[in-house]
Amino acid sequence: MKGTALSALFAAATLLASPVFAADDLCALNLQKIDDNMATLNATSEGLEKSLDEHVADAKAAQAKGDNTKCIEITSKVLLRLDKTDKGTSSGS
């Protein structure tokens, strides 16, 4: 009986801790996706690249402070903008 209660308690603790690790992973994953997209993006304007670099710097600063929610918020917006930019250049080909 005690073993089952301990197992359930351990499982609950693991589930509660999981979002913290997932947020950290998502922040790092988004930053990697941005780096990959920036390296392969066709004909980005200098202004766009500078703007995206500033947002990436903000996201990395948030990550360094441990504010993964802010990092994910910033990187998600950057990825959306990169996706829109990439679709805009590929559809014009």
TrEMBL record:
<keyword id="KW-0732">Signal</keyword>
<feature type="signal peptide">
    <location>
        <begin position="1"/>
        <end position="22"/>
    </location>
</feature>
<protein>
    <submittedName>
        <fullName>TmRNA</fullName>
    </submittedName>
</protein>
